[in-house]
Amino acid sequence: MFQNGYLKVRKLEEKDDHLLAKWLSDPSVLEFYEGRDNPFDLARVNKVFYAPQDVVDKCIVEFDSNEIGYIQFYQLDEETKKEYGYENEHVYGTDQFIGEVEYWNKGIGTLLVSSMVNFLMEHKKAARVVMDPQTRNTRAIKCYEKCGFKKVKLLPSRELHEGEYKDCWLMEYRE
Questions:
Q1: Is residue 14 assigned to a domain?
Q2: What is the count of structural domains for the chain?
Q3: What are 19-28's contacts with CB under 8 Å, separation 24+?
Q4: According to the model, what pLDDT value does residue 53 have?
Q5: Bridge partners, residue 7, by sequence
Q6: Cα–Cα distance measured from residue 94 to residue 74, given in angstroms and rounded to the nearest whole number
Q7: Residue 145 counted as domain residue
Q8: Which DSSP letter does residue 154 get?
């Protein structure tokens, strides 16, 4: 896919299933991604992340040759573009997490998000890139704002997380 210094983003491979199962059973990661009441075992990882009909590009994030996280990107479908007000635009969304918590708060997330935005703008000709973090996920929101994302719309009760519907921000990056 691409590399930026010590950061490398590569396509998800079958052998990566154990990494996803490890990360997605860690309560620290699950606090904001999927929920602590919703851990993944190997069977669930294989069902969710390796579906053949999926239109999402799924990738592993490496830093200094260590596998540390996950990122996916996808073109928004027509229904979602209409909901967000992007009907005639080429818009991509991303979701990501750093699964190795010792790599948190070191600027790697900012490097990852800004590198992915550059990739999507240059190679996929995206007009905008969007994300929808939970409003309470202040660390992620600060990271995205550092990368040039702006909060554009509150999405009330957007995501079922740990038994409650949580508000999210629609955040966008555009040149």
A1: yes
A2: 1
A3: 19/60, 19/67, 19/70, 19/99, 20/45, 20/49, 20/70, 20/99, 21/45, 22/99, 23/69, 23/70, 23/97, 23/99, 23/100, 24/99, 26/99, 26/101, 28/101
A4: 79
A5: 4, 63
A6: 7
A7: no
A8: E
Predicted local confidence at residue 160, as pLDDT: 93
Query: What confidence score (pLDDT) does residue 31 get?
Result: 94
List strands edge to edge, sheet with 7-11: 2-4, 7-11, 57-63, 66-75, 91-98, 128-131, 164-174, 150-161
Check residue 136 and give its pLDDT.
96
Confirm whether pTM is higher than 0.85. yes
Using 70 as the pLDDT threshold, list the residues of the chain that sit under it.
Answer: none
Structural domain that includes position 79 = 2-130
**Which pairing describes strands 2-4 and 7-11: parallel, antiparallel, or unpaired?**
antiparallel
Amino acid at residue number 19: L
pLDDT for position 46: 95
Interatomic CA distance for residues 63 and 167, integer angstroms = 31
The pLDDT value recorded for residue 87 is 84
> What is the pLDDT, as a whole number, of residue 13?
97
Distance CA 144, CA 142 (A): 5
In a domain, 9, yes or no: yes
